[in-house]
Amino acid sequence: MTRDIHSKAFDKGTKTKLHLYRQYVEAWLPVFMTNRSEYAKKGINIYDLFCGPGHDATGECGSPLILLDTLNVYKSNPQTCHHSPVKIFFNDGAKYKVEKLEQCICQKYGDLENVHINYSARKFEDIFPEMLGNLKNRDQANLVFLDQNGINALDKNNFLQLIESHKTDWILFVASNFVYRFRDHPSIKQYIDIASCECNNKYQIHNVVANWYKDLIPDGMEYYISQFTILKNNNIYGLIFGTANPRGAAKFLTACWNIDPVYGTANYDIPTRGKAVQQQLTLFPSSPRLQHFKDSLREELQSGNLTTNKDVYLFALNNGFLPKHASENLKAFKSEGLIERGQISLSYKKIFKENAVEKIRLKA
Ligand SMILES: C[S@@+](CC[C@H](N)C(=O)[O-])C[C@H]1O[C@@H](n2cnc3c(N)ncnc32)[C@H](O)[C@@H]1O
Fold first, then answer.
1. How far apart are CA 286 and CA 45, in angstroms?
2. 77-91, 102-116, 118-132: lowest mean pLDDT where?
3. Residue 360 domain-assigned?
4. How far, in Å, is the centroid of ligand 1 from the Cα of 332?
5. What residue's CA is closest to ligand 1, atom 25?
6. Is 359 part of a structural domain of the chain?
7. Overall number of domains in the chain
8. Is residue 214 included in any domain, yes or no?
């Protein structure tokens, strides 16, 4: 489990993980670099606490260089170049990796204007509480990447403290197969306790882990957890994403659906999930998962559990779908004669910024 991934070429699963990270960073950075709100003007912080040396044995970029490449692109774009200060914290327990990374960054990027990089070679266990203190004290936007080798970075206590910071989005890598295999062992249960959770096939393991985190969210707290499963060497791993902001959740899920356009859940074909079907009237392929979402959305609207466009938007996100999927379904319900009124907006701006919450009634 603790093999050094940087001593050889990154495998396919690692490449998928980094691809998803790149997509999220590409979507996240401009939101805050161009945001003129008071808190964004104070600066944004990015913590990569298991950063590695910057690349694999073949020179393929790891997470720190993915971040800096993306920042560089935005710095050369006139719309994003005058940006808020960016503070980056690169940490890895292996000192030689951090030294290699610092050298590589100095050579490749020189001095990046308005970007301050802090390097440290400390154990995650020691640096995490300090980071939490910073997240609380500085009222700024934060992105935290926890690309651990194993499973123990976010136990219940760490998770509950991390989600207290409402301006922090985070991405966690978990060796979910390992959690599942040793789920009854106290040394695993002390971090992630899924001993009493049901899991009928191995392809669900990462969802079970993600659900364990979801269940820890205190009642009444608006918080979004999303996940993406990664098959690596025939074992199940995955990313878990957390945010207090629906827009953040939509951005992460957009990255997932870009990688898996039919299911939005994994980097491989799950044998049990059924074949994609090309729909006749739209450009998008459909799948049993999308069909199931349509059926549940119809039922929830008809039963009155969902009554507004905001409810529908959040229902989509909480089930791993995009507002555009829900929007397609609302259009379909309209053409089936189930909704009378015209266009219903599922735009983030309208619902969450302009508070344009509209009632939706679906005929039974
Ligand atoms: C999966 S790799 C991270 C890869 C990196 N994100 C990249 O893209 O290259 C995990 C890293 O965690 C470091 N590590 C392992 N245990 C650690 C600990 N307790 N604290 C901090 N870093 C640790 C390892 O040295 C390794 O570089």
1. 38
2. 77-91
3. no
4. 47
5. 94
6. no
7. 2
8. yes
Least confident of 34-43, 164-173, 178-187: 34-43
Please report whether residue 238 resides in a domain.
yes
Do 169 and 305 lie in a common domain? no
Half-sphere exposure of 277 (CA within 13 A, CB side): 9
- For a mutational test of ligand 1's pocket, the pick from 149, 154, 191, 232, i.e. the residue with the most ligand atoms closer than 8 A to its C-beta, is 149
> Lowest mean pLDDT: which of 240-244, 247-251, 335-339?
335-339
Q: How far is the CA of 92 from the centre of ligand 1 (A)?
A: 6
Cβ partners under 8 Å of residue 69, min gap 6? 61
- Residue 120 beta carbon below 6 angstroms from any ligand 1 atom: no
Residue with CA closest to ligand 1 atom 7: 62
Distances (CA, A) of 45 to 29, 37, 334: 10, 15, 44
The count of C-alpha atoms lying within 13 angstroms of the C-alpha of 249, restricted to the half-sphere facing its C-beta, is 23
Q: How far does the centroid of ligand 1 lie from the alpha carbon of residue 19, in Å?
A: 17
Is residue 260 lining ligand 1, measured as CB closer than 6 Å? Answer: no
Residues 280 and 257 occupy one common structural domain = no
Q: For 279-315, what is each residue's pLDDT tens digit?
A: 444 555 678 899 999 999 999 999 999 999 999 999 9
Q: Tell me which residue range forms the domain holding 58.
A: 5-267
Q: From ligand 1's centre to the CA of 319, what distance in Å?
A: 30
Look at residues 303, 297, 272 and name the one whose alpha carbon lies nearest to residue 287.
Answer: 272
* Higher pLDDT pick, 154 / 261: 154
344-361 exposure pattern, b = at least 16 Cβ within 10 A, e = fewer = bbbebebbeeeeeebebe
Give distance in angstroms: CA of 146 to centre of ligand 1: 9
Where does the pLDDT of residue 8 fall: very low under 50, low under 70, confident under 90, or very high at 90 and above? very high
Domain ends where: 267, 288, 307?
267
